Amino acid sequence: EILRLLYGGKYVEYSSAPILLVGLLPVLASLTMALGNALRAFERPDRLFWCYLASSGAALLVGIPLAAVYGLIGALLGVLLSYATGAAAMAAHLGLIQRREGAAHS
Q1: Which end of the chain, N or C, is more open, meaning fewer C-beta atoms within 10 Å of its C-beta?
Q2: Are 55 and 39 in contact (CB under 8 A)?
Q3: 3-class secondary structure per residue, the chain
């Protein structure tokens, strides 16, 4: 309804799923950046490289086919999947680093 008021009835066909997916993009991007900065703080650019490689792999292997089959929705899902994959990989690496740091201090 807000889109209808703001844009005078134009773009109403984009008012459901794509808008929601676009709204999730900054959330996942921010999470990925925060986790990436944590890996940088631990001085582990090597781990960051592998996380971004996983993210890129998800975009290539799943994101491109999603975009080809489902168009705009598929492209948005592919980008979200790429961010989510990167964030999950970064969280996993941070967990490993923290366990090792904790074990070293015990």
Answers
A1: C
A2: no
A3: CHHHHHHCCCCHHHCCHHHHHHHHHHHHHHHHHHHHHHHHHCCCHHHHHHHHHHHHHHHHHHHHHHHHHHHHHHHHHHHHHHHHHHHHHHHHHHHHHHHHHHHHHC
pLDDT confidence of residue 21: 87
Picking from 66, 87, 76, the residue whose alpha carbon sits closest to that of residue 19 is 76
Give the torsion through C-alpha atoms of 25, 29, 68, 2, to 10 deg.
10
Q: For the segment 20-39, what is each residue's pLDDT rounded down to a tens digit?
A: 888 899 999 999 999 999 99
Computed on alpha carbons and rounded to an integer, the radius of gyration of the chain in Å comes to 18
- 42-80 confidence digits (pLDDT tens): 999 999 999 999 999 999 999 999 999 999 999 999 999
Task: Please answer whether residues 36 and 48 qualify as being in contact, where contact means their C-beta atoms are separated by less than 8 angstroms.
Answer: yes
Token readout for 69 is 């089959």
Under 8 Å between Cβ of 80 and 28? yes
